[in-house]
Amino acid sequence: MPLRIVIAEDSVLLREGLTSLLERFGHTVAAAVGDAPALIAAVTADRPDLVVTDVRMPPSHTDDGLRAAVTLRAADPGLPVLVLSQYVEQSYAAKLLDTGGGHAVGYLLKDRVGAVAEFAQAAERVAAGATVVDPEVVRQLLRRRQDPLQRLSPREREVLEQMAQGQANAAIARSLFVTEAAVNKHVSSIFSKLDLPPAGDQHRRVLAVLAFLRA
A single GO BP annotation from the record (predicted)? Predict the structure, then answer.
């Protein structure tokens, strides 16, 4: 059955490519927009059969598209939404998949679009009410739902515990009778194993401590 689709993608080349691809399979692209506010406006003005949106787009060029999808699904849980991304944005991916009871929603990595027939089939399945999730997304979400501290070594747990007590690296080194360089290495490993994105180390220390406290 032909679908009416709204596409949100800030790359003009990819936006036109998605439009051409979906029209080749007999669907109608009702709107093709380049930012999150325009996506919300297009869907609000004329509800489509399916929304296909990128994660990263204006105005902030972070996860605006994904947040817009979560907002749209919160207002209309039955709205079919297929999200495309170059990476797995775990927090909002989980929120998106939780909306509408997990029905009529999909999350695919962009390299799947290269398999044209497979992508078109995924879009049609989501519009029909199915849940379509990239295997890599599943893997990362499952890993996120596990206790993240299980990945830490006993020494790294000791270091993290002292970080939670507010100790600086030099103080941790003295307490554990190791060099400060060794502590720095442990801290870097903790950040990596807890999947904390590159940012200011002070910010990542706070996030690591929060993970420790939640566990």
Answer: phosphorelay signal transduction system
Structure tokens belonging to residue 173: 């080194």
d(CA 12, CA 89): 22
Q: Where are the domains of the chain?
A: 4-144, 148-214
Residues 181 and 194 sit within 8 Å (Cβ to Cβ): no
One digit per residue, the tens of pLDDT, for the chain of length 215 reads 899 999 999 999 999 999 999 999 999 999 999 999 999 999 999 999 999 999 989 998 888 998 999 999 999 999 999 999 887 666 667 778 778 877 899 888 888 777 898 899 999 999 999 888 887 776 666 566 566 787 889 999 899 988 887 788 999 999 999 999 999 999 999 988 887 766 656 677 877 877 776 66
> Where do we find the tokens 């295997």?
135
The superfamily in CATH containing domain 4-144 is Response regulator (3.40.50.2300)
Cα(137)–Cα(89) distance, rounded to whole angstroms?
A: 9
- CATH (one of 1.10.10.10, 1.10.260.40, 3.40.50.300, 1.10.760.10) for 148-214: 1.10.10.10
